[in-house]
Amino acid sequence: MKLLVILEENWVFAPQGGFHCLAEDLSYGSKCVKGFYTWQNSKADKMDHNTGKRLNTLAQLLPSVPGCYLVGGAVRDCLLGKIPVDLDIVTSEYPGKIAHAIGLRYGRRVICLQQKSYQLFRIVTPEFTFDVTALTGPDIESDLQQRDFTINAMGYDLSSRRLVDIFDSRADLEQGVVRMTSPGVFGADPLRLLRAFRIAACLAFSISGQTLETISENSTAIESVAGERVHLELFRMLAEPKTASLLRLMQQTGLLNSLFPELAILENCPPAGPHNVNCLEHSMKAYAFLEQLLADPLPWLEDWHTDIPAADHPLYVVLKLSTLLHDIGKPVTIKQTKGKIDYHGHQEAGARTVPDIAQRLRFSKQEQNDLEFLILHHMHLFHLFQLDTDNNMSKRAIGRLLRLAGKKLPCLVFLFAADSLAKNPGLSRSSSKIAPFCRRLHQNYKSVASKRARIKPLISGHDLIEHFGLQPSALFKTILDQVNDLHLGGVLTTRREALNWVADELKKHNF
Q1: How far apart are CA 32 and CA 260, in angstroms?
Q2: Contacts of 63 (CB under 8 A, 6+ apart)
Q3: Which one of 4, 33, 324, 388 has the fewest CB atoms closer than 10 angstroms to its CB?
């Protein structure tokens, strides 16, 4: 037993604090006599295998006082054998006292986040984030009844070291099921409609049938949730590698259509050209193929795969969204000529829809720009593929594509591949024409990228001012980009040739 002095308001700072205490199997906060606290040894109840040990280890980081509980995802993750980093604590005491004790132990500032009568006290350390709030209701059982899903509705008593499980949540964990605690949870917070799918994606769980039925009955309520909150849940979900089947369920419950009403009307767009299913079904298939390619790229995509952003990068999620939404411009461009359906210009129409989506779901400007770009140019590689088939793909065309797409070109290639496979799965064979096209494109991409990094521009904006009397404007970039493309393609090789080309172009366009 180790004696510690009180620092403030009967709460103690543990000088032994830090992770070395874990090896000593110590907990803290148990009051001994007025003016002093003690550290005391404690043993966890052995619930099953190492569960008690994991929970006890976490409990050693927290004050061991009656009415104080570790709850939610931290308890769930311990039972799943994971190490949580977000520790939620509820207490029947004033939560500021508990938070103050934790802050003192780790030498960290306590942040109070308050909304109306609700207070949350947060302490952030390099290893953990502690959130401390008051119990909702008179006791822990009442608090747990108001939580979203059974697997998140368990508490661990930090004083008695007892697991509180009023929903038999461990059975749902063992079976891998996300189940609502009651039908009213979605009315209390409609974001939970989407969170059910995000949790299922993160844990590779299924969602219970009754929960899906209730989501279907309340699916439109997601439209009332702040876009920032929806954005966070959606991006966390789509960052997971296997979400195609969950998106199917979201579509069947109506939740996907509530999030993206632009998708709903695609079901009424009939197939055209090489397509054999309606546009919504094609988009869902393309999304599923994209996830397969990202997880296990075909041989002719392996070189491109190394340049795909990591799953925690926003562009990774934007790539998945662009694949899902790439045809959203078709409903407003549909035409029928001589019995044939045509969607000419659907990529431009789709890109014009993106700002509304971005505003609704609070995308960052970069996320909006990237989504617009991928939807606007998702047909570019189909056109280039046709040129390659006809032996007309020039270095200038490659240079223009590289300048246009930059680091987004690998994403554009994967979108092109997923879109192609959704039309014709047989293209996955290495013997298909698309395989050598993608390989040649990658070789040119690397060659042009390397050359672009080495070469010095033939002319600059100063030359346009000095030689042609032009004033700085958007025209500068257009001219200089075209000169650079011609330089990369070997058409222009000297400064004089570049200046002569500019003079001819300005004369041609009456400048």
Answers
A1: 59
A2: 28, 29, 98, 101, 102, 158
A3: 33
DSSP annotation of 473 reads: S
Write down all domains in the chain, each with its CATH number in brackets.
2-175 (3.30.460.10), 260-445 (1.10.3210), 461-508 (no CATH)
362: three-class secondary structure by DSSP: coil
Give 342's strand partners: 335
- Identity at 205, one-letter amino acid code: F
- Residue 415 to residue 438: CA distance in whole angstroms: 12
β-pair partners for 443? none
Q: At what angle do helices 244-253 and 279-295 cross, to 10 degrees?
A: 150
- Please report the pLDDT score of residue 115 as a whole number: 74
User: Is residue 185 within a helix (H) or strand (E), and if so which, with residue range?
Assistant: helix 185-188
Query: Which residues are 177's β-sheet partners?
Result: 206
Q: Are 394 and 489 in contact (CB under 8 A)?
A: yes
Both tokens of residue 156? 């661990």
What HEC string does 321-365 produce?
HHHHHCCCCHHHCCEEECCEEECCCHHHHHHHHHHHHHHHCCCCH
What are the helix and strand counts (H, E) for the chain?
24, 15
Output the pTM of the full model: 0.81
For residues 152-175, average pLDDT: 95
| CA proximity to 445, closest of 383, 380, 400 | 400
pLDDT digits over 54-68, tens only? Answer: 888 888 888 888 999
Q: Are 160 and 27 in contact (CB under 8 A)?
A: no
Determine phi and psi for 37, rounding to 5 degrees: -125, 165
pLDDT tens digit sequence for 252-291: 999 999 999 999 999 988 888 766 789 999 999 999 999 9
Sign, CA dihedral 91-93-95-101, equals negative
Distance between CA 241 and CA 379 in Å, rounded?
25
Q: How many CA atoms lie within 13 A of 123 on its CB side?
A: 27
Q: Which tokens belong to 486?
A: 């011609």
Q: How far is CA 350 from CA 230, 323, 329, 331, 470, in A?
A: 22, 12, 4, 9, 35
In sequence order, what E strands does 158-309 have? 162-165, 177-178, 206-207
Per the CB < 8 A criterion, the answer to whether 182 and 165 are in contact is no
Distance CA 276, CA 12 (A): 70
Model confidence over 107-120: pLDDT tens digits? 999 999 887 778 99
